[in-house]
Design goal:
Elements lengths: L6 E2 L5 E5 L2 E4 H23 L4 H4 L2 H21 L1 H5 L2 H5 L2 E4 L2 E4 L7 H19 L3 H26 L13 E2 L7 E2 L2 H23 L7 H17 L17 H20 L1 H5 L1
Parallel strand pairs: 1-6
Antiparallel strand pairs: 2-3, 4-5, 6-7
Helix pairs in contact: 1-7, 3-6, 7-8, 7-9, 8-9, 9-10
Function: Catalyzes the transfer of the diacylglyceryl group from phosphatidylglycerol to the sulfhydryl group of the N-terminal cysteine of a prolipoprotein, the first step in the formation of mature lipoproteins.
InterPro entries: Lgt
Family: Belongs to the Lgt family.
Length: 275
C-alpha cells in the first residue's frame, strides 16, 4: 500500500524576545513583505520619474492603512460580538485578563479589511501629494502580491488559516489543529500570489504606456480575490458560524473586490477598442 508522505508542520512561532516582548516569525515575514513591496514601488516611481519627496511618506500611509484596516476587518467581519465588547483589545496588541494585561500581538488580521484600509489611506496620500489616485493604486497593486505572499508564509509559520482535511501526498499535519493531514492552504496562497506578482510586473514592463490608469489595480484585485474565492473551498472555517453558510465570509467578501477589479480592467482597454 502506498504510504502518504505527510509533513508534520510544528515550527516554533516565536523568533526571539526583546525587553520582554516576543517577536514572532509572522511579524518578521509581514514586515519583510512590506519592505519588498516598498522597494518595488520605489523602482516604479523612479521609472515614472515621480519626485522622491512624493514617495518618502508612502510607506507610512500603506502600513497604517493595511494594519488598521486588517485588524478592524478581522474584528468586525469575524468576531464582532466579542471585539465590540472589548474595544481596547481591537486597537491594542494586548489582552485584558483577571491576572492583568497580557501581551498578545495582533492575533487576527483580515486581508479584506487590509485592502479597504489601504484604499482609504492611499486616497488621502494621493490628495496630499497631488497625484492621480488610480496611478497610485496601480503602483501599489503591482507590488501588493509579493507582500501578500510573505503574509501567507507568516500564517504558515503560525500554523493558522489551515486547509480542510486531505490525504494528498503533500498534506501538512498542524499539531495545534489535531493530527489529521490537511491542505496547506497558506502555502497554496503564497505560491499563487508570487505568480500573480511576477505576471503583473511582466505586464507592466511590456504595456506600461498602452493602458489607462487602473489596469494593474484591477488585475491585482481580480486575480488575488478570484484565487481567494476558490481556495476558500479547501480552507477550514475560521469561525464556527461559517459552517452553516452557503459561501463562507471570505468568499462573500471577495465577490465585490472581483467585480471592482474586473470593472477597472475592462475600462483600461477602452482606448484600444475605439481606435
Amino acid at each position: 500500500m502506498h504510504q502518504l508522505l505527510h509533513i508534520v508542520w510544528n515550527p516554533e512561532i516565536e523568533a526571539f524576545s526583546i525587553f520582554g516582548i516576543t517577536i514572532r516569525y509572522y511579524s518578521i515575514l509581514f514586515v519583510t513583505g512590506l519592505i519588498l513591496a516598498y522597494w518595488v514601488i520605489s523602482k516604479l516611481y523612479k521609472d515614472q520619474k515621480i519626485p522622491y519627496e512624493k514617495f518618502d511618506s508612502l510607506f507610512i500611509y500603506c502600513l497604517l492603512g493595511i494594519v488598521v484596516g486588517a485588524r478592524l476587518g478581522h474584528c468586525l467581519f469575524y468576531e464582532p460580538s466579542y471585539w465590540l465588547s472589548h474595544p481596547l483589545e481591537m486597537i491594542l496588541p494586548v489582552k485584558f485578563t483577571d491576572g492583568g494585561i497580557k501581551w498578545t500581538g495582533y492575533q487576527g488580521l483580515a486581508s479584506h479589511g487590509g485592502t479597504i484600509g489601504l484604499l482609504l489611506s492611499l486616497w488621502f496620500y494621493a490628495r496630499k501629494m497631488k497625484l492621480n489616485y488610480l496611478s497610485v493604486l496601480d503602483n501599489i497593486a503591482i507590488a501588493t502580491p509579493i507582500a501578500a505572499c510573505f503574509i501567507r508564509l507568516g500564517n504558515l509559520m503560525n500554523g493558522e488559516i489551515v486547509g480542510k482535511l486531505s490525504n494528498v501526498p503533500w498534506a501538512f499535519i498542524f499539531p495545534r489543529e489535531g493530527m489529521e493531514p490537511r491542505h496547506p492552504a497558506q502555502l497554496y496562497e503564497a505560491i499563487a500570489y508570487l505568480i500573480i506578482f511576477v505576471i503583473g510586473l511582466s505586464l507592466y514592463k511590456k504595456y506600461k504606456t498602452s493602458l489607462l490608469p487602473g489596469f494593474y489595480f484591477g488585475y491585482c484585485l481580480t486575480t488575488i480575490f478570484v484565487f481567494r474565492f476558490f481556495v476558500e473551498f479547501i480552507k477550514a472555517s475560521q469561525e464556527a458560524y461559517e459552517d452553516s453558510m452557503m459561501l463562507n465570509m471570505g468568499q462573500w467578501l471577495s465577490i465585490p473586490f472581483i467585480l471592482i477589479g474586473a470593472h477597472f480592467m475592462y475600462h483600461s482597454f477602452k482606448p484600444a477598442k475605439n481606435k
